[in-house]
Amino acid sequence: MVDTLVIPLLKIVIVLNATLVAVTYMVLLERKVIAWAQSRLGPMRVGPYGILQPVADAVKLMIKEDITPVRADKWVFTAAPIISMVPALIVYAVIPFGPKITLFGRQVSLYITDINVGLLYIVSVASVGVYGIILAGYASNSKFPLLASLRASAQLISYEVAVTLTLVSVILMAGTLSMVGIVDAQYNQHVWYVIAQPVAFVLVLIGGLAETNRAPFDLPEAEQELTGGFHTEYSGMRFALFFLAEYANMIVVSSVVTTLFLGGWLPPFPNTPALHFLYAIPSWIWFFLKSFFFLYVFIWVRATLPRYRYDQLMRLGWKVLIPLAILNLVVTGIVKVMLM
Amino acid sequence: MSQAIAFYFISACILGFAVLVITTKDTVHSVLFLVLDFLFVAALYVLLGAQFLAAIQILVYAGGIVVLYLFVVMLVNLKRPPEAHQDPHRRANWGLALSVAVLVELGAVGAYSYARPAPALAAAATPAMPVTGNTEQVGWLLYTSYLIPFEIASMLLLVAMIGAIVLAKREL
Asked: Which residue of A92, A136, A223, B130 is most buried, as measured by CB atoms within 10 A?
């Protein structure tokens, strides 16, 4: 009873709440980092160094007027923010924050569940998230959101192909789709996959930027051309849901890249006896450190690179990333067969 | 017991959404009901213990193909085409003929399986497989017993892809 119901429910509650808190603080982190990159201070008024800014933002968004345009498709307009938020959250079900540990004399795993098709589950759930953007643009019944959502869906479909093809070579290395299994495979093969699969690592990182609509691929919300992008007509909490979904997706991409390429919860060189003192740091702290690094990279890239043009974006996706992904897959397969 | 309840609930949802797909006036809504339908079909696969198939169902149909449907529906101006034929009952007659054909087919299948109960498929197929796990078993079957059909299917997809490229890019 305790093992099958209470502990999983407790884990779900903890993970969901931690995610939402992390997402709100991601917004603050982004504002701070970009401010520093531009020699500004960023938010400083609410709390010391502005650390209570997310609370103020949340209150502001909740008490704002909630407007639905008269000509909007009401049901779809209401459903769109929910559809983009839910996939971003349910992906956390299979992300392993750590191995099984003993807590108060009871074996507890630091992941909600480990299913046989974990990585495939993540890819398929993420592919449903695109509906939120398409439907928001369609239901608003306004030309800029519609243009933005058409751009977004073309972009997401193109990069989904590249990312999924790249992930296949990682699966080929690990021999399993289970997220815990992939980390174990990196332990058993004595190598993080960032070293064994550098091309795949770069491709997944670029694809991840495009899949989360982050700069330099943030064309769906290009302010200069599309006023606000697909969420132009949204206000208050519904707008906030799109915002939260974007940041939740960033955390998902960081966690997935960490798990696949940086050994998840493992310390560096996990099998070297000379470095065993690194196990003194708990596994989940390693995981959060690595994920945090990627979140920082996301913001760093945004502060550094200008936005791509639309034709450049499509050319990069179809003519560079997908051929590279296929090449990487073929080479991985040949090497794997030769080593067997 | 709970399995049966879940099965009937999911099946009812699948049928209900399928009806909504063809009865809804708004084309975009109809496509959305189609997505919901696919999601519930995936739930049915999970209930049957076929997680791999469920994930593929969502990835390919809900996440890929229907997005393209939505694209087309949103881009193409959907005005009612001018009535090409004079006979107003033509469509109704076709519909009636088709539904009778499907009913007869279903009846034939039902009668056949009633007369000759199928051998327990799951029990017959499992012992030969040296691998465990849903994905591994699907892969094993595809590359051993069903290799030829699998390759033919991939050939078909390749032909379709080349055809699409030729149609879209006439002066290559």
From this structure: A136
Is B61 among the domain residues? Answer: yes
- In this complex, do A157 and B133 lie within 8 Å of one another by their Cβ atoms? no
- In the predicted structure, residue A329 carries a pLDDT above the cut 70: yes
**Nearest CA to CA, how far is B63 from chain A (Å)?**
5
Residue in chain A nearest B57 by alpha carbon: A124
Tell me the backbone φ, ψ of residue A324, rounded to 5 degrees: -65, -40
Residue A50 located in a structural domain: no
Q: In sequence order, what are the beta bridge partners of A101?
A: A108
Residues of B in contact with A135 (CB under 8 A): 32
Closest CA to B74 of A145, A279, A291: A145
| Within a domain: A221 | yes
pTM metric for this prediction: 0.84
User: Given a cut of 90, is residue B126 above it in pLDDT?
Assistant: no
Structural domains in chain A (count): 1
Using CA atoms, how far apart are residues A299 and A250, in angstroms rounded to an integer?
10
Q: How high is the pLDDT of residue B125?
A: 52
How confident is the model over A144-160, as pLDDT tens digits? 888 888 888 888 888 88
Q: Is the dihedral of CA B75, B78, B84, B87 positive or negative?
A: positive
ipTM of model over 0.90: no
For residue A112 the two structure tokens come to 């909600």
Range of the structural domain that residue B17 is part of: 1-78
* The Cα angle at residue B73 between residues B67 and B74, in degrees rounded to 5: 90
Q: Looking at the complex, does the CB of residue B58 fall below 8 Å from at least one CB of chain A?
A: yes
The total domain count for chain B is: 2
Alpha-carbon span A111 to A91, nearest angstrom: 12
pLDDT (average), residues A51-58: 85
Q: Does B154 touch chain A (CB under 8 A)?
A: no
Among B residues 131-150, those touching chain A with beta carbons less than 8 Å apart: 133-135
Beta strand spans in chain B (E): none
What pLDDT does residue B86 have? Answer: 62
CA distance A338 to chain B (A): 20
Q: What's the gap in Å between the CA of A51 and the closest CA on chain B?
A: 38
Domain limits for position A274: 67-339
Chain B hits for A121, CB-CB cut-off 8 Å, are 51, 55
pLDDT beyond 80 at B81: no
